[in-house]
Amino acid sequence: VQEERKKITARLEIQKDDIQAVLPISKNWEVINTAVLTGRQVSQAMKVFIVSQAGKVADVTLQSSCHSEDESVLKVSSSCSSVYVDGSEIRGSWNASVLVKYGTYTGLARFTLWMPEFPLEVNVADFRLSQVKGWRVPDEHFSRSTNKIKRSLGADDRRWVGTGGGLVAEDVDNGVEDDKHSFCRLRYQQSPVEVFARFLAADHDSGRVSYLVSRRTWLRV
Question: What sequence ranges are listed for the domain Transmembrane protein family 132 fourth (predicted)?
Fold first, then answer.
């Protein structure tokens, strides 16, 4: 008896490997805003990756566009390669958001932005500074001022003196000495100054305020 051959029919669906997610990545999701105190920009590197349905990962940082939801808290570079603060910010935030877009796909990055609390704490080692007896130093500020006066002398600062052969122009020094080292000032003691600040961030949804490390922690800035 000849066995009947069985046929198996199956349908395979083939789909395009499409993007599953856009993921902004940073090594540190916290930014301490010292720029409002020093005027020097503080930045934090960021990259943008896409993950496909097949699990493939690609860096698309330079092909993405980004914008900060609130630039009074945190700013983002046009290349999406970093977030930064430049000192123009007005508050901190527990959830400062950066919207990332790649094609029609979007992702969201959330940073904690720590803002210094005012007033600051200023510590001076010695509050009473006395004159150092018998010690005088050149007054560079006064010397620069006299040099400016000399450079500004022009035709109006000359006087004409009669001689046997006619008139000769003569500079008027207005009593300004040529030797800049002849102007000295008193020397006083010096003392180091240290400035400390507490940093805070607020959750604008709940109004809750958190301090960096703790409320009792002051950082030297």
Answer: 21-117
Residues 46 and 67 in one domain: yes
Query: What is the rounded average pLDDT of the residues 39-66?
Result: 96
186-194 average pLDDT score: 90
Residues 113 and 24 in one domain: yes
**In whole numbers, what is the pLDDT of the chain averaged over residues?**
84
- 132 and 111: one domain? no
pLDDT digits (tens, 9 = 90+) for 115-125: 999 999 999 98
Residue-range definition of the domain harbouring residue 98: 19-117+201-211
Contacts of 97 (CB under 8 A, 6+ apart): 68, 69, 70, 108, 109, 110, 111
Please count the structural domains in the chain. Answer: 2
